[in-house]
Amino acid sequence: MFGENRAKLVDENGQLINDSVIDEKSAELSTTVRNKFQSMMSGPLATKWFQTPDEVAQITVDAIVEEKPHFRYQTNKMFAAATEAKFTDPSGDSNIAAVNHRFFAK
Question: Which residue among 6, 10, 14, 48 is the one 20 to 30 A from 63 at the CA level?
């Protein structure tokens, strides 16, 4: 999509390639978010975040056989609040607040 014009700031491990192009505060925030995300995906919360293929397949089958199917099905209930904020607040402020809480809450 972006071809050769895209700037690559991180490597395949999420480490900054060239931190001279990023100010100190942005680099700190990037590291905080990356570390928080990695700990969430590898810790005990991971079982709440991930779904098995069978769980997703069951929701898909249920949608197919539904007499009046919905336009969209959310397969992961962990993201219900974020999805609601994203689609009900035209300003985007609720979505930003949800992301801020998820990654920066103390």
Answer: 48
